[in-house]
Amino acid sequence: MSSDSLRLTVRQLQCERDERVLFRDLAFQARAGEIWQITGANGAGKTTLLRILVGLHGFYEGQVRWHSPLAPDLLYLGHQPGVREELTARENLRFSAALNNQPGDVDAALDAVDLYGFEDVPAAHLSAGQKRRVALARLWLAPKKVWVLDEPYTAIDQNGVARLDQRIRDAAGDGTLVLYTSHHRVGDDVRRLHLGAEAPA
Amino acid sequence: MSGPWWATLRRELTLIWRSPADMVQPLFFFMVVVSLFPLGLSPKPELLALVAPGVVWVAALLAVMLSLDGLFRRDQESGALDQMLTAPVVSVLPVSAKLLAHWLLTGLPLALMAPLLGYMMQLPVPALATLTYSVLLGTPTLTVIGAIGAALTVGLNRGGILLALLILPLYVPVLVFGAGVVRAAVDGSPTQGLLAVLGALLALALSLGPLAVAMGLRISAGD
């Protein structure tokens, strides 16, 4: 594979939290179009690893390098959906879109996550799964080079899971690097990164 | 680069508009605290006029401080703050829009209320204009300084008291010059110099403050 498809290099990454080593000597290289599933027991440091990668967590040793001419054009969906209850689904998504410089049809994106008819409902009246869908709708806006998704499948129903699988595979097909934490496997060609003790075979 | 800034400003104004209690409470606090002084001290006009500059200014300062505790909290709890910090724009942009929206809906109404409360406190009428100018120039500085404290304490459970301990000492210069300029107006001394000092403090806060707030948020997020 050519070197300009290289997106991310991690070398000898080590992170400690409360005197406990979360991971040590973590190293991997991720390229455009790959899907990386990060697994591990609860408390193994999956969320911390993603936060280190997107630059939210600064207390680590080792090297994290994004290969792109500019800052990585990334989309981060955190553990919390980032949806304010006072705002409607449409207002929430429109703000995320403007902030992340993601032009696109906001209503069509909400439609794609099955929120048709809920655009003007304040998020306080939406269920946990629907709030998560408001956040996930960002994946249907303008493409990004990198997606970093923290437990995107939480509180999503079966139908939504299938649709999200499809979306992640499509994006990877278009060259997006996807890193996500979940126990759900998107497909067979997913690379797996396991944190903590080796998983049982 | 103006897209994210306008979007944040619009969002913040909508948010404050949807929960008006957050906006009205500091204003009521301001009014009630000032009204307590004539009751507690004595209703003698000479005495009230003497303490009025300090009383109005301390009350305004506390009102701004109280309003700042929740500035970033709900964004942090909902995860929206992480979005702002990972967005491909300098985080100073959304932060400064947030600060402006906050000032428009707390500092500005406080400045508009100040002359009424000053009148109630028997300030001579010519000094009321100076009082308004001083609060108008001083409250944005208070908002920015307070936001630095709010950014650093956003992840803490009981950040309220710590926030007060952190930022009240930093409010001292604004209070000294703010109340001082009103006292000068009461005495009939020139006020331009002191107003200019307030303006200088404001310029300093506006130029460096949003950067400090953004860095504070980053430090809080990393924990």
Q: Strand order, biggest sheet of chain A?
A: 5-6-7-3-8
DSSP strand count of chain B: 0
CATH topology of the largest domain in chain A: Rossmann fold
Portion in beta strands of chain B: under 5%
Number of domains of chain B: 1
Could you list some keywords that capture this structure?
heterodimer; A: 201 residues; alpha/beta; Rossmann fold; 8 strands; globular; B: 223 residues; mainly alpha
Quick recap:
The complex is a heterodimer of chains A (201) and B (223). Chain A is of the alpha/beta class and 201 residues long. Chain A has two domains: 1-73 and 144-201, P-loop containing nucleotide triphosphate hydrolases (Rossmann fold); 83-143, no CATH class.
Please describe what this structure looks like.
Chain B: It holds the Pfam family CcmB. Chain B: It comes from Alloalcanivorax xenomutans. Chain B: Required for the export of heme to the periplasm for the biogenesis of c-type cytochromes. The complex is a heterodimer of chains A (201) and B (223). With 201 residues, chain A is of the alpha/beta class. Helices cover 25% and strands 27% of the residues of chain A. Chain A contains five helices and eight strands; from the N terminus they run βββαββαααβαββ. Chain B has one domain. The longest helix of chain B is centred in the C-terminal third of the chain and has 30 residues. Chain B is elongated, with a radius of gyration of 18 Å. The model of chain B has no long low-confidence stretch (mean pLDDT 91). By secondary structure, chain B is mostly helical. Classes of the chains: A alpha/beta (201), B mainly alpha (223). Chains A and B meet through α2 of A and α1, α4 and α5 of B.
